[in-house]
Amino acid sequence: MSATMTTPAYPEPTLTSTNAPLIEGWRRGELMLQHCKACSAIIFFPRHLCPQCWSVDLEWKRSSGRGKIAGYSHVYSQVTPPFAAEAPTILAEIVLDDGGAMLARVISDAPLAIATGMRVELLPTPDATRFPLPTFRPAK
To answer: In whole numbers, what is the pLDDT of the chain averaged over residues?
Structure first.
């Protein structure tokens, strides 16, 4: 065993034609979300059709990546090593300033200080590239 330890890699999402714009956008440090052209719904998680009106006329738009926590949970029980080493993991419903809501991880040096209503922002690059899916932090 090596004298230097490395952090285990996070599980990577499976790239599909439906989620590719979200994942590829995140790799560039952008939050891309689907918008329904028929009813104006903002859609998260990526789908083939709008869950509000069933339209397939969807487009991808960049989100500001800023919002507030509507609800959250501290997760202490983990199934993969990178998450177990970082417990508690904070999973939150985030209501985005420019519309829509999503579930995402929030990274914080003070996880017990996370609260409902707290302002959050996307983790900036290059820090963001460490995580395979959109990840937030308390707003500065």
So the answer is: 90
Tell me the C-alpha distance between 114 and 91, whole Å: 10
The tokens for 99 are 């519309």
Query: CA-CA distance, 127 to 140, in Å (whole number)?
Result: 15
Task: Report the alpha-carbon distance of residue 38 to residue 28 in Å, rounded.
Answer: 28
User: Which pLDDT belongs to residue 7?
Assistant: 55
Running DSSP on this structure, what letter comes out for residue 81?
Answer: H
Q: CA-to-CA distance for 98 and 87, rounded, in angstroms? A: 30
| Domain spanning 20-138: CATH 2.40.50.840 | yes
Instruction: Read off the pLDDT of residues 31-55 as tens digits, 9 standing for 90 and up.
Output: 999 999 999 999 999 999 999 999 9
Per domain, the residue ranges of the chain are: 20-138
Q: How far is CA 71 from CA 8, 33, 57, 102, 119, in A?
A: 29, 20, 30, 11, 12
**pTM of the full structure:** 0.88
